[in-house]
Amino acid sequence: MAKQLREYTWDEVKNWLVIDSRVYDVTKFMSLHPGGAHVLSDKNVAGQDATDAFFALHRQEVLQRPQYSRLQIGTIKGEIALVKYAPEELSQVPYAEPSWLASGYFSPYYTENHRQFQKAMRKFFVEVVAPDAQACEDNGKRLSQAVVDKLAELNIIAMRFGPGKHLKGLTLMGGIVKPEEFDYFHESIVLAELGRLGTRGYYDGFLAGDTIGLPPVLNFGSPEIQKMVVPDVLQGKKFICLAITEAFAGSDVSGLQTYAYKDGNDWVINGTKKWITNGMFADWFTTGCRTDTGFTVILIPRIEGVETRPIKTGYSPTAGTAFVTFDNVRVPLSHTLGGEGKGMNVILSNFNHERWMMCCVMLRTQRLIVEECLKWSQQRQVFGKPLNAQAVIRNKLALMISRVEAAQNWLENITYQMNHSYKEQSDKLAGPIGFLKQFATRTGRATAGDATLIFGGRGITTTGMGKLIENYHRGSPFDAILGGAEDVLGDLGVRQAMKKMPKNARL
Ligand SMILES: Cc1cc2nc3c(=O)[nH]c(=O)nc-3n(C[C@H](O)[C@H](O)[C@H](O)COP(=O)(O)OP(=O)(O)OC[C@H]3O[C@@H](n4cnc5c(N)ncnc54)[C@H](O)[C@@H]3O)c2cc1C
């Protein structure tokens, strides 16, 4: 039964704490207060309006935690709370939402259906995913099966492979969007809500391996292989990852040393793979191998001879980053994806989608960082003024906002092209997607640096006010390496443009 809250006058609350018109009886909690009991009995706090003092030190979600919310005994008569805790609603902070969601702005790209879909997706992410994201980011465990089951129930796992025949007959998000109407803007909404959580390790742990490991099976696997793998992955019963990189083969895949040779009707595979996302919990490994006919992609189940060990990186182990060894692993030749010696086509075919997905997530996190900085620079007082009274801080905010807005507009344009010319993606869009990813990761790191300065010590502290800034500062370099290193992608874009230069172009 909900606790009855009383209304109090200011005269009645002398020994208690008032935060944003809510009255808290902290007498029993004082000795437990992490900042010391004296803070709560200070004459400027006890029985006074402690709102500013509280929000100078705590994030608003602290008040929602059961151990603190149960201390509330009432409200101040005639006053209403100013700070509304409503993470599922659209933020009213300028630039905190992309302009298509901000009131008073228009977009040529998004329909009413996208808006409905976004609303439902945000509610789902706030209620179901966010608590798991924070817990796993901190404890390093993989995302919980309960969340995976819910993702499968709403067919969100399937939606992460974009529009296509794999959606046929599925009920998407309880029926909000029909499979044949699902487009890349819908998918970008799923990714944006993931990015808005601000937990970089969890983002990769949130089945990033599936999103890069399954497309080669969907596009190049035999019907038997697809039947064996696809339904279980889409239903969240099994997990898959992409295992290409090795110690001597990163940007340059030609250095691959994992070797597969034929023995009767089997491949026998030996070698190692490095930094394999979700490898720690994957059941299947879509693996790049050197064979006598060239580069071949082979689907390897977690069977005898396959071992995975965690690699410690700067972000949370919830990503399941693995060092994988294959020791005389035997799989049938029918596990070849895309034909012998044709592995490069298989791998290249999903690069654009992978990089575009990364842009969707990272730009939404970048926007979250802008929101954090706008809020903090308004509430933090220095030298008797809010932080945003300093021109140097406003200049940082101006650059942050411009960077994320520029990239968002570019992303929407590319997404629109994807909706119209998926087949031509590699020809037309590989360059622009490469450039966008390079731009987004460079601007992301610039914004991470500026945000850290705005937050000071809090910006490099993993809990409390600056925790999202710290996570972003630590996580944004990952975006610059994974899915194609920043410089490599810029170079790819220019080389693509050079190929299309008219031979007769002259100054
Ligand atoms: C956390 C994490 C997760 C990952 N997940 C996966 C995964 O799931 N599956 C998988 O197969 N791989 C994965 N990778 C590997 C990732 O794709 C590679 O790290 C990336 O391709 C770069 O390779 P490298 O680290 O060997 O760097 P290198 O290839 O050694 O390059 C180092 C740097 O040299 C520069 N450089 C290299 N070549 C060029 C060039 N031609 N032009 C200009 N500059 C260049 C770039 O700046 C680059 O950053 C992951 C990596 C990490 C760190």
Automatic annotation (TrEMBL):
Domain of life, per lineage: Eukaryota
Keyword ATP-binding: no
One Pfam family, short name: Acyl-CoA_dh_1
PROSITE patterns: ACYL_COA_DH_1 (PS00072), CYTOCHROME_B5_1 (PS00191), CYTOCHROME_B5_2 (PS50255)
Any single Gene Ontology cellular-component annotation: cytoplasm
Gene Ontology BP annotations: fatty acid beta-oxidation using acyl-CoA dehydrogenase
Cofactor needs: FAD
Residues covered by the Cytochrome b5 heme-binding domain: 1-77
UniProtKB keywords: FAD, Flavoprotein, Heme, Iron, Metal-binding, Oxidoreductase
Single GO MF annotation: flavin adenine dinucleotide binding
Record has 4Fe-4S as a keyword: no
Similarity comment text for this entry: Belongs to the acyl-CoA dehydrogenase family.
Protein name, entry field: Cytochrome b5 heme-binding domain-containing protein
Species of provenance: Clathrus columnatus
